[in-house]
Amino acid sequence: MHFYNLFIFSHNIVIIFQILQTIILNFIKKEMYTLKALDITALVLVIIGAVNWGLIGFFQFDLVSSLFGTGTAFTRIIFALVGICGLYSLSFLGRDRYSDSDRDRTEVK
Question: N or C terminus of the chain with fewer C-beta within 10 Å?
């Protein structure tokens, strides 16, 4: 029974990541915000960190530590990268969110 619950849980995680991928791709296609590769990578890592913290908060389950071991060097590197990407993502707040073509359409001339 425990294996079945783990299978259902992992299947739900896959579905959540597919939904997030669809949302991010639609966000990029609409050109509401011009994202660079570093921005997309940072956003994905921040989302992974948020999902991990949600699992910790709701279920007391640390997904990263369970996959890579508690306190290992690799786990600490992942946590450090997520933290750095979180700080980098703060720069999204100060950026111009619309591309130049959108600005030209909305300006009054």
Answer: C
